[in-house]
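Justification of computing resources. Each target in the renewal requires a structure prediction run like the one illustrated here; the chain below, 234 residues long, is used simply to show the kind of job we budget for.
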Amino acid sequence: MAWAKITIIVFGALTAIVATMIARVQPTVKTQIAYSSAAQIGLMFIEVAIGWHWLVLLHFAGNAFLRTYQLLVSPSVLNYLVHHQYFHYIRPTQKAVSKLKASFYMLSIKEWNLDGIMFTYLWSPFKWIGRQVQFLQSGILVIIITIAGLVLLIIGYTNQELIPSLGGASPVVLMSIALAVILFAFTYRKSALKAWIYLLTAHLFIMAAVLVNATYINLVEIIFYASGVLLAFY
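Resulting structure tokens:
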């Protein structure tokens, strides 16, 4: 769908631009590396939307190797820079800065107030939604949802025609169930193990939604996805 690709490209470009500006003014090496990686991820989203999937894999691997190398050598680089500044200090010259540059500089130093924006528009609403589905903490309901997720996953792989299309909205319904379970786990505080079980159950519905939405999925791809989830669980 063209509108989805355009949306991904726009958000990828915004991520790359904002993260680059933040990385260029941060005082710590780790923060610079983190935002530089975020900028590269924005570019990867653009490549995915365009359809350059092999380029994304190469970009991802290259960025991982580069950032790992930067993290490993950063203490040596800092030591060299401190040594160089101590013995070869040059007083910086004062330059006039325009209001536009100063504004972008201050916004980047403050990381574009992303923490406040995320807390107001993501963290708080998600917490509120999670509190509205507290009925999911019922043990019997957890078992029912888990069994339903497994059944839908198996049917989605073997014979997805058995799952009602609901006018093409069945993937949306399955993803909505997964989102509700994830948001509940996000607010659940009684048992870490039980919260992880909720997350595993949500992934069953996510995989079922992908299977229903796709014309064909290789079994290896399902195993690859599930292995990542299970490794994170353990």
